[in-house]
Amino acid sequence: GVKGSYGRQSIGFQFDNPDSMLGQVLKYKDLKEVVVMDMGVLELEFYHRLQHITLRVTVGDSDQRVQLLEMIEKYSLGRPWVHGYDATVVGAWKHLVHAMKDGGTTMKLTAIPEFCIDFLLKATMFAVDVKDTRKQGRWPLCFAGAMFWLAIFSWCMLEIANQIHYNIPALPNAFLGITVCAIGTSFPNAVASVLMAQQNKPAAAIANALGSNVQNVFLAMALPWVIYSIQIGGKPIPQNVAGITEGVYWMMGTLILVVFFVLAPPLCALTKPTGYLLIIVYVVYLVLTSGETFGWWPPLVK
């Protein structure tokens, strides 16, 4: 939904809205891949440091589409990989071959695990892949498939954590939960918030961080609990709640701290010192709770 112009054609795509989440200019030198799709749609993949931005361009006129592709070929010095979109496993294989042949060191290192995941997704969801413009009406089935694979990958992560604990009993499950599992699930959200903050979208960055955790508490925890409770006929489920009370206190304290920072001058703004302080609070929490799980000191709250 961002309007652009063809000014400064030799540099890249310039957007009319300076506050665009994409930034004001997407440069040709950062363009690594061009996917030619149906109905005059082009997907341009830009990579800059840790950022990966997909720009979808609709060019209905075939002559203009050819002109745009020629312009990309000219000013990007032929670096991007231009290809058609393939929602099947064949497309996943072609991407692997390209990465191993023409990709950089980082792309080659990630090509194999990326292919394994891409193969599974394309093998099971090619018929509802909404990136294919002809299948966008099938988004409910695509969403259901995505939730299915999210559940599978989450189960795999938990099984890996259990196997780590089984083979290394000195590492408690609680410690793996607050480190490996927590960081593994939150790291993508953290990266997304950093990118949005860099693009002058602080509200979106904060909403992403808070919204993802609200979903974790009210959906990711509650829904499996409800499903399991239904399976056993609604009977009580005895649990070891050691540490839960202290965790709730930590969450309440963090929430109060964030609200205080938001209401303190400058109003509704989180400064760099505030960010450092919140990081220190997290490190303190990690050290204290890790020490409790290893039995180095007694719990702060019993």
Automatic annotation (TrEMBL):
Membrane topology: Multi-pass membrane protein
Gene3D superfamilies in the record: NCX, central ion-binding region (1.20.1420.30)
Any one GO molecular-function label of the UniProt entry: calcium, potassium:sodium antiporter activity
Pfam families: Na_Ca_ex
Main localization (coarse): membrane
Keywords: Antiport, Membrane, Transmembrane, Transmembrane helix, Transport
InterPro entries xref list: K/Na/Ca-exchanger, NaCa_Exmemb, NCX_ion-bd_dom_sf
Annotated localization: Membrane
Residue intervals passing through the bilayer: 141-162, 174-197, 209-228, 248-269, 276-297
Protein name (Swiss-Prot/TrEMBL): Sodium/calcium exchanger membrane region domain-containing protein
Organism encoding this protein: Strombidinopsis acuminata
